[in-house]
Amino acid sequence: MSGGPKxxxxxxxxxxxxxxxxxxxxxxxxxxxxALDPGRFEVVPVAIGRDGHWLSGARSQELLSSxxxxxxxxxxxxxxxGLVPDxxxxxxxxxxxxxxxxxxxxxxTVQGLLELLNIPYVGAGVAASATGMDKALMKAxxxxxxxxxxxxxxxxxxxxxxxxxxxxxxxxxxxGFPCFVKPSNMGSSIGISRVDTRDALGPALDLAFRYDLKxxxxxxxxxxxxxxxxxxxxxxxxxxxxxxxTMRGAxxxxxxxxxxxxxxxxxxxxxxxxxxxxxxxxAMTAFAAxxxxxxxxxxxxxxxxxxxxxxxxxxxxxxxxxxxMYPRLWEATGVPYPDLxxxxxDLALERHTARASLLRDRNP
Length: 364
Fold this sequence. Notes:
globular; single chain; 13 helices; 6-stranded antiparallel β-sheet; 4-stranded antiparallel β-sheet; 37% helix
């Protein structure tokens, strides 16, 4: 005897936020919304404005439906919420899909809130999100796991402000030039500069310190190839085929990432079988090194002759925009976009159930 139609999963798309990647988050949320199976999911948009205020359901829907990136929640309005979600938020949702890129969303802050509210959520936990966001901590864990990373230096802002001459002299010696100057906690290539001379180093540091109190300066690789792999799963993750980024600009900056026609993705990447195997193994190791779960995109730098591979970084909430590489990698691997989203929700519920079971065993 049939039990009747199965109830749809009530899925909250959490997007927006205070990060400079706010607009990217909106585009990702719109893309995921369009890919969801309405027969399986009841979608509830939940937006956070640029000021950190949680918006009402009507305002969230308006923001997600608007074709413009302009944020009506940038200034608090009467229908905006407060700096914490409505008390009914947790009870009303089966699972949350955080699509908040960068600080205050991808860095463990939102994940910690959802843990407190005991709500299942897509993606990595608090610790993995925090270390995946912080390039300096991430690379320390990669080194401990035996992964190859490029020579780099971590500069705190107080050192740059206190003795800039010493910092410039030290960086000119190691890691040297060319190098890339990056905010340690930021994504979408915001605040990153390629530096080829000592004269350009100071302005690049000033720019990066606008976004973080800690900056990573990393050796550049002339002629490198930028190759990425997607990881999907919890205890037994799978790795996508590798894809290679091609671009018109000098490096994969914000404009190149999110402007149609400026970058392309060749899938599968044209690499030797042994290189593909090495990328697969390193992606798995990087995923495990930060104790990741659900999803991640692992980025590599590969020398032109493929004799050397360096792990660049791991991204625990990769972009889901129409130009983003993570869903395109899985599409090429045989997982269509709607199936990818459904798998991520299943993995979130699986992980939440396992953690709930652990807590019950601990507190009978």
